[in-house]
Amino acid sequence: MRLNLLLMGIGGQGLVKLSEIIARGVAKKNLPVWIYQQKGMAQRGGSVRCEIRMGEVEGSAIPRGSADVVLALELSEVLNAVDWMSEKSLILINTKQIPPIGLRKGGDGGYPKKEEIRELLKQAGIKAIFVDAADLAEKAGLPIAANMVMLGALAALPNIKELIDKKVFRAALVESLSKEVEKNLKAFELGFNQIERKKW
Amino acid sequence: MEKRIMSGNEAIAEGALEAGVEVVAGYPGTPSTEVLEVLAERSKSLSDGLHVEWSVNEKVALEIASGASWCGKRAMATMKMSGLNVASDSLASIAYSGCKGGLVVYVADDPSTSAGMVQQDSRFYALLSGIPCFDASSPRKAKFLAKASFEISEKTGAPILLRTTTRVAHSLTEVELGKRSHLSRPSEFEKNLQKYTKASSEWCTVQHEQTLERLKRAGELANELGFNKLSIKGKLGVIASGVSKLYVKELVKENSLELSVLEIETSNPLPREKIEKLLTHSNRVLVLEELEPIIETQVRSMALDCNKRTEILGKLDKDEPRLSRVGEYTYDVVAVGLEKLLGKQPISPFKSKVSGRAGELRVQRPLTFCAGCPHRGTYLAINEAIKKHGYKKGEIIVTGDIGCTILGMNKPFESCWTEVSMGASLGIAQGFRWGGIEKPILATIGDSTFFHAGIPPLINAKQHGVNLTLVILDNSWTAMTGYQPNPGTGLTATREKTNPVDLAALVRGCGIESVRVVNAFRKKEMIDAIYQAMGSKGISVVIARGECAIQSARRKKKFPKVQVNEDKCTGCKRCMTLLACPAIAFEGEKARIDPSLCDGCGVCVCVCPANAIEEVK
């Protein structure tokens, strides 16, 4: 068994925290786990990438074309992950848009449209699911918890569910957070239900 | 045995604790920083005399670790590759003297330049200093090597260069935990001029011989301890070092390949016997190492000695494809190498059909200053002062330096022209002056970078009466690497209070008469100070003071927040185009300040021509 999970986002979105909770969940199932946290420029609005691998693997680097799941915390950031995707990949995308500061002059300038991204992935035969994580986090009463909405969505994917039960992720979440645990759990549940309702 | 998920850097810290390290000094730098941070944190609860410090620069850090080793303690110095350049002057000399307590120099290379600077191969420093170099491939190996390095260093008297790359330093996996050793040795330094001084040709010659003898012995000991595993299978061989080893393992397993594999941990000295054994058993051998062909060059020469026509593949092949000396090795690079070795294509590297289109849609994210960063106001003021002197934007050279301050090169400021190395803004600026630039020249530098390497070029400018404006952006922290304290902060690595160095007094003490200390958030005063400094003769220094916004927020220091009065906002977008603040965005025709991001620094209040940005009452 082997599963490769690629997380994409920008500094300040809680990507590293998310990777820690996932790793904790994997370790609870006694599965070997490897994580790579790309650091350096995170605080200053740069792109961040996290690679998580579980099962029979020999290191943290996900080979090109072999991400089983890609989770993007920001719409345009999913574009930085296409080289890791194949027809077998499942892509979870938060529809939240954070244009870089240079593109913020009123309109959305050169920022890609959601439909362009949907079309691109469709062309490549890649299955993508869009999640309005910001709205759901707002609904949970904690706008900053979009990462936990996405964790819930991840936990509801069939190939993840097979390996790690939702309860395990919930426990890992509770252990990893010190503040607003209830609201984070609610965000997690809203994300989970969103995907759980889908027909596969 | 207890296990914990930890990074390569944490694992090295744990390995050092298990080996009984007593003195650790370093200078922060991605990807090496966490080793010392973990040790500083742990030292608070250990109370067994472990001394951990962020030193003023890497050279000083290495000297501190060496001094401690010379009185019998196990000691370590930590740094990124650029830091080893700074420390190298002392390293070459300390290598000649050798050590008493185990001495480990930890260096992290960054082949993919994930944090900027050069794709430097630090193994060269082990070759030029004649010291052993051990390369870690995973967090587990990193901990093992860290612990073993202290043992081997102490048994042979050779300081050891322990090296990782970003991929190893920042990868996490489960590692077994051991116990902290407490050695409590007596401190003793024996006076021995033949060993610890260099002012005699004869002594230095003996020291050189002893250095090489220690190196040889360290290699033997490493092999006795089971380093450099060799497995012979078939007529094709791979020599792999660092993280490439993991990729080979996974590719071999996945594709059921029959290969002989030699895993190199001691890149200096190389395990000659094992390499010769592999060469004599193989028709073809692939060498996998990131960056420079250091192992490969030596393997090629050993192959000649073996008198056997073994073909060597790697970066120096006569024919394409050659493996690259540029960037990080990935699965895909290793797969290309294995393809050449096998002469067939069982492993085809993946090519995405949509890479090209995704590239077109991709968004570039140039880095900017954090919301509330004092540097935003400083660069705004530099640009305004240049304008006030009658020059156009882009007409006046501003040399930049290492750290957050270099972000002044990005939009919308575009002030800085150069970035070289710690403290170099000042030296390069003087070169521009003697090179014939007659217009005003400015240099910018952060407080930590100034303490690290800015003082010698400042004194030099004073001695030669160079016309120059130096702006020191003093935010009280070494911020870019994760907010470490520096001599001006008033704290140590373990967060104990200490007397801060008075930066203004230090600059005056260097003989600089024109020194202006200004609040970086006061736009008018900043512009005036820089304007006047640019107009005066000789070297003038402006110290732009304002604490790093991230650190002041952590200390719950509150500034009054600001908001946009929509009735007054004309939608001119000056706040956005002049400042690029993460907290300011446009909604329709009006600016909006995100209250969750705004730090209340107030710089935007000064730039709004309609006075539409107001304090939240």
Q: What would the keywords be for this entry?
A:
heterodimer; A: 200 residues; alpha/beta; 6-stranded mixed beta sheet; 7 helices; 6 strands; B: alpha/beta; 7-stranded mixed beta sheet; 5-stranded mixed beta sheet; 23 strands
Describe the protein in words.
The complex is a heterodimer of chains A (200) and B (617). Chain A is an alpha/beta fold. Chain A contains seven helices and six strands, in the order E-H-E-E-E-E-H-E-H-H-H-H-H. Chain A is 37% helix and 18% strand. In chain A, strand 5, helix 2 and strand 6 form a beta-alpha-beta unit. The longest helix of chain A has 16 residues. The two termini of chain A are 22 Å apart. The model of chain A has no long low-confidence stretch (mean pLDDT 91). Chain B has 617 residues and is α/β, with parallel strands linked by helices. Chain B has 23 helices and 23 strands. In chain B, the strands form six sheets. In chain B, strands 3-2-4-5-7-6-12 form a seven-stranded mixed β-sheet, sandwiched between helices. In chain B, helix 6 packs across helix 9, helix 10 crosses helix 13 and helix 16 packs parallel to helix 18. Chain B starts with a strand and ends with a strand. Classes of the chains: A alpha/beta (200), B alpha/beta (617).
CATH superfamily of chain A: Pyruvate-ferredoxin oxidoreductase, PFOR, domain III
Structural class of chain A: alpha/beta
> Which regions of chain A are unreliable across 5 or more consecutive residues at pLDDT < 50?
none
Radius of gyration of chain B: 27 Å
- By DSSP (H or I, 4+ residues per run), the number of helices of chain A equals 7
Main beta-sheet strand count, sense and barrel state of chain B: 7 strands, mixed
Q: Give the strand line-up of the largest sheet of chain B.
A: 3-2-4-5-7-6-12
Overall tally of domains of chain A: 1
Termini separation of chain B comes to 58 Å
Instruction: Give the uncertain stretches of chain B in residue-range form.
Output: none
Amino- and carboxy-terminal Cα gap of chain A: 22 Å
The shape of chain B, in one word, is: globular
Fraction of residues in β-strands of chain A:
15-25%
Rg of chain A, Å, rounded: 16 Å
Oligomeric state of this protein: heterodimer
- Indicate the mean pLDDT of chain A: 91
Q: What's the story with the biggest beta sheet of chain A?
A: 6 strands, mixed
